[in-house]
Amino acid sequence: MNEANDPAGSNHPAGPAGPARPARPAGPNDPAGPNGPAGSYDVAEPYPLRQRLALALDVDDLVEATRLARDLQPWFSVAKVGLELFSAAGPEVVAALDGCGYRVFIDLKLHDIPTTVGRASRVLGGLGASYMTMHAEGGVPMLHAGVEGLADGAAAAGCPPPVALAVTVLTSAPIAASEVLEERVAAARAVGCGGVVCATGDVGLVKALDQHLFAVVPGIRPAGTRHHDQGRAATPQAALAAGADLLVVGRAVTAAPDPQAAACSLVESVISGVAGSAKESSGA
Ligand code: C5P
Fold first, then answer.
1. Residues taking part in catalysis
2. For the chain, which domains are there?
């Protein structure tokens, strides 16, 4: 389920479909549907919240991953496959999660010599994923090889290429120096990456440098919850207010005693936050 050249899929205002109001996905279990809790989210946003939530499936077993994916599909439209799951399940994880109705995000954060990254990207580009990450620290030649590899692999497989995302500074790092961030964003732009992965606090600078770069933000935590190893965590409300396009949510939901209840509560907290700010700005 790859939506070519549109980092957020066809519902994103920056996508090829332009700013037109999106059709709302409205499955019976879809909280973004007309009867679901996210139905009111478009008070402040032109496209559904669910389109902006990626589920980090950081588990070491495909059966467990697809079970979580199915359980949480009402709240998330993107499934992120990181090193742990890809190492356990291999490339077929992409088709499995696509089959569960997700856009798939391969988060392997490639960082190697340009030839190796280019060749690995060629393989990954043909899997039918929607997003793929590389470390911007790898520099322009490496990122360029990755972008070309994704395009070549996708063309050979007859599918659209994944959006190349450059990881700027890991959200586990306590700070990101602005000059480092600027340099990495510049490298991403120079090679035609569609977006970057950054912390909430970095989104403003990223968008100031290029408002069209798609900003993916991990380290999402509901207010007052554990940050684990995330050095720059933020609430979903803060990330959205900063301008994040896609929020990556992992342990806040997957490690909860009841992941569905945690997902529901996270989404509802965003909706009530948005409704509150909308009231304020309208003076109601
Ligand atoms: O569980 P948690 O929400 O902290 O998971 C965050 C996910 O986002 C992990 O899969 C991690 O690999 C990924 N990630 C990150 N920081 C980045 C890029 C990706 O935490 N800069």
1. 109
2. 43-282 (3.20.20.70)
